[in-house]
Specification:
Length: 481
């Protein structure tokens, strides 16, 4: 990802100003200048989810879109949690070998006791794309550790791990991952295995082991010592509810000298925050307020999730102008794609001019005929699915950029984990700070960067996440419910 110089930016505020507001709690003990946690996210929505967990717990937090310049880093010098977002989830192992070490080394040099490689809470990965196993291998080359703790579950997100198997909730209930209506049919990384260590074994030869719910409830420290002594390099930790989550956080924090490199979802930070609160190392933070209602927002969606389809239906009935983006256009000539992009920018700006919220979407659920049309176009294009998805994300990012510039709208949503990464690149935002909560994992953020969109309020949402009224909720400013 290209990171631009901060030198041309005029009158940026200080880090203390940017990180102020809702972050009223204070970290207690230790070096007050050093971060407690750093993380590298393999997609933008997940990276932002980590940020909000920490920020709304009272930890001053910033998320960068790449390794920052010294000047940009200094703007956020008061941050006690620092992240870098990426699109690694869409990349192959060769790309990871070439590109992960530098940002991980930069984060390692921040000297936080925990360096976290953040993955999706549904463990999106495969041997050939988004390989979590390869990421672990590269991470260990940057920060050696006796073992890598792995916490994937995040009960607040309705992600649960029991005896090594991951479960994820939808609007229709909770499903084992290999029977999940979205993840079992994921277009790039379909999940056919709920046992995460079995899934991971296809991506790395590192020996692994499990600390299950029974071990957490009895003597997790003894279990960890035994497993590491027996040669485990990856230790997956169950998490189902507050008690097991707190135990996982305690285990990681109290062993941070030898478990300094961690992999997992934002469940890592949820667990750490529970432990810090339980031990008094972190004071309780006041609930973060909403961001206030605006007349209209701009939305782009590259998700084919049934959850997103329901959200689109709700939005259509509540003041949003739905505009279809033909994803099959990315499989043809660049000139054809450019025409579609310009058409949708004009249509979106026109919708905003009449008071509606433009919502550009590539599909309305997995059964939308647009999905079949895209697959047919892809099969004859010579493009790989990953390249085609990248082109979709980039096109939607161009559309959002154009709509915002033409309409003057200052709040936006990007729906879809992969779409969010490519969209953020087009907006040229270099840093995000959490602004107001919505659902866990999709807060309204403030974007900063040397871009016309500096100060933009933006929410990044995974496709399978959120309430049916999510887009309306963001338009109304989010906030606790």
């Amino acid at each position: 990802m290209t990171i631009m110089s901060i030198a041309a930016v005029v009158e940026y505020s200080t880090g203390a100003d940017v990180l102020g507001g809702a972050m009223s709690a204070e970290l207690k003990g230790g070096d007050q200048r050093a971060p407690w946690v750093t993380w590298y996210g393999d997609d933008f929505t997940g990276s932002a989810a980590v940020m909000e967990v920490l920020a709304f717990a009272g930890v001053p937090t910033v998320l960068f879109s790449g390794v920052p310049s010294d000047a940009l880093r200094d703007r956020f010098r008061d941050a006690r949690a620092i992240g870098i977002a990426s699109t690694a989830r869409t990349k192959d192992p060769a790309w990871m070998e070439q590109n992960l070490a530098r940002p991980l080394a930069w984060l390692d040099a921040c000297k936080a006791p925990i360096l976290h490689y953040k993955v999706c809470s549904t463990f999106d990965s495969a041997p050939d794309v988004g390989s979590i196993g390869k990421a672990i291998e590269v991470g260990l080359s940057v920060r050696p550790a006796a073992a890598v703790a792995m916490v994937t579950a995040a009960p607040q997100m309705r992600r649960y791990q029991a005896f090594g198997h991951l479960f994820a909730g939808t609007l229709d209930g909770v499903f084992r991952l290999d029977r999940h209506p979205v993840m079992a049919r994921h277009p790039v990384t379909p999940m056919d295995e709920a046992d995460l260590l079995r899934h991971l074994a296809c991506q790395t030869g590192l020996p692994s082991a499990l600390i299950d719910l029974e071990m957490l409830a009895s003597d997790p420290q003894a279990a960890l010592d035994r497993l590491v002594s027996a040669g485990a390099r990856v230790v997956s930790i169950d998490s189902m509810e507050e008690i097991s989550e707190t135990a996982a956080g305690r285990l990681i924090w109290e062993n941070r000298d030898r478990l300094g490199f961690v992999v997992g979802s934002q469940g890592v930070e949820y667990a750490l925050v529970r432990h810090w609160l339980a031990t008094g190392q972190l004071a309780e933070a006041a609930p973060a307020p909403g961001a206030g209602k605006v007349e209209a927002i701009a939305v782009v969606s590259g998700s084919v999730s049934p959850t997103t389809a329901r959200q689109l239906d709700h939005a259509a009935a509540h003041g949003f102008a739905l505009l279809g983006f033909p994803a099959s256009a990315v499989c043809g000539a660049q000139s054809t794609l450019d025409v579609e992009v310009e058409r949708l920018i004009a249509a979106g700006a026109a919708a905003a001019a009449r008071g509606a919220s433009p919502l550009v979407h590539s599909a309305s659920g997995p059964d939308d005929p647009a999905v079949a049309a895209f697959r047919a176009a892809l099969s004859g294009s010579g493009l790989s699915p990953a390249d085609a998805n990248a082109r979709i994300g980039d096109a939607l990012g161009r559309i959002l950029d154009g709509i915002l510039l033409k309409s003057g709208l200052r709040r936006a949503v990007i729906s879809g984990g992969d779409t969010s990464g490519y969209g953020m690149e087009r907006l040229k935002l270099q840093a995000l700070v959490a602004r107001a909560p919505t659902i866990p994992g999709a807060s309204i953020c403030t974007g900063h960067g040397e871009s016309p969109h500096d100060g933009l309020e933006i929410a990044l949402k995974g496709g399978q996440m959120g309430s049916e009224d999510f887009f309306s909720w963001v338009r109304d400013g989010g906030g606790p419910r």
